[in-house]
Request: fold
Amino acid sequence: MKKQIAIVAFLFFSAIICTSAQSHVDKEATLKIEGNGQVKALPDLGILHINVQAIEGEFGETVSRLNAKTNAVYTQLEELGFERGKIKTVHFNVTKNTVYENGKTIEKGFLGQQSIQVQFENDKSTLSKIINSFAESTTESSFHFSFLLSEKQSTALKNEAIKQAIAQATKVAHTIVESTENTLGRIVEIIYNTLPQNLFGETLNEVVILGSGAYKRPVNIDFEVQELTISAPVTIKWALD
Reply:
């Protein structure tokens, strides 16, 4: 009986030691710092958005007219050097054409709409050629641009932002421990806070082309594309010795 009591007492004492040790680990002094890296760059890609529409009395006539206008735009883009296979339709719709006349809504034939897109390397020379081509075009259409980062450039900028965030957090951590009686120990945890990035720049105002070669003089490009920002928040926790 005494032997059993002694064994129980030993196990209980061991449990207290283990618990105390674990409690000591849980209460280890740590320092947690968040660094935030940011890099800016001009977008290296542009997207040309073109909208074409046709209004005719019959459904079939509307589709045929819309196809003819769109094919004219395809030909125009090919003349600019774009491959036909890379010109994509993103919206196609034919509906009844509803108008408001004399205080009431009436139907006048059908309205067909088609939107196409093509991507290009962003530079002023290409932008100028595109704008002047559509300015002199006889095809009625409207277009606008948007700008973004390629996957390659986006990855490179994100990696640079992460390095900046880590360097920033480390610098702040050393500044703090130098002002105390502690020293920076091992890294206990690193958290990379992935945030949704807005990789699109401002969309330019839509430029409406009237057709019939409305603009004969070359159009000068006098705008600057907005820089895009990549952010990378990184949180690092150090043990303090």
In short: The first strand starts at residue 30 and ends at 41.
